[in-house]
Each structure stands twice: as structure tokens, then as C-alpha cells.
TrEMBL record:
Lineage, broadest ranks: Bacteria, Pseudomonadati, Bacteroidota, Cytophagia, Cytophagales
Keyword Metal-binding in annotation: yes
Superkingdom of source: Bacteria
Organism this protein belongs to: Hymenobacter monticola
Record-given protein name: DinB family protein
Pfam families registered for this protein in UniProt: DinB
Isomerase as UniProt keyword: no
Amino acid sequence: MYTSSIQKNILAELNHELTQTRRILERVPFEQADYKPHPKSMSLWQLATHVVNLLAFKTLFVTHDSRDFLDPNAPKPGPTPTSMGELLARFDEYSATLKQELQQSDDEKLSHNFKLHRGEHVVFDYPKATAIRIMGLNHSIHHRGQLTVYLRMLDIPVPGLYGPSADEK
């Protein structure tokens, strides 16, 4: 159903993408955590963890007005998960927190700016809704796509995300 609410549209898109992302994460083989398709690539486990940790970053866009990468007191994700169970538990926890914060927000709050910076260098300064879409959803989808390539290279069946995959035909 179409709604003119920015907040409700973001929540609907987020719910869809979280479901699809979890399906990919469930297939990540922990026993191949160190796999890298190229020396410059993140390892499979680093990439999977990054996808999960981006959820906490998206929550910052909703709950704060800025984030300085140089601030040693800024919130950070927990330690690297050491099992699939820990990774999926963190995904579920961070997903629930993000959805809750978005549900408690509204279009007016999402129109306020969020500034991401490194000291004096401004990475971006966007309305929160835009930051969620660009650096949140789009960024996560990009890395989830990388995960599907890793899975394919490891000959692990890839689930369809927006229709059937070659493995589901």
C-alpha cells in the first residue's frame, strides 16, 4: 500500500531488505570465514560482520545528529562475532533496535540533518531520511551483493532476492 509518509516507506523497504539480508547471512559458511576472492578483498567473515554492523550505523542516523569518526567515545559495534549464532543474534538485535527507533521517529524528525565527518572533513550532511537510504540501505545492499558473489564463488546456492536465482530455477 502506498503511503506518503517517508518514515513508513523507509520501514517497509527496511523490512523487505532485512528479510533478504538474513537469508544471505544464514548461508555464510563459518568454516570458510577466512575466504577472500582477492588479496584486496575483505574476508568472508569481515564482510558478513560489516553487513550486520551497518545496522547499528543506520540506527545512529535516526537517533543522533552527527557522527565523528575521530571521536574515541562514539558508539561502536561489539567485538567480532565468533560463530554463526553470534552473527545472527547480533543481526536480529540490531535489526530490532533499528526498526524500533524508526517506528518511534516521524517524518519531521527524519527531515533533520545528519552530519558524518572525520574531524573537520565532512563526509556528508544529509537529511536523516536521505542518509538512511544512501549510506544505510544502499550501502548495505551493495555489500550484501558482494556476499552473494562470495557465496557463488564458494559454490553455495544463492537465494533469489528479487525473484528466483539461478540456483532456484
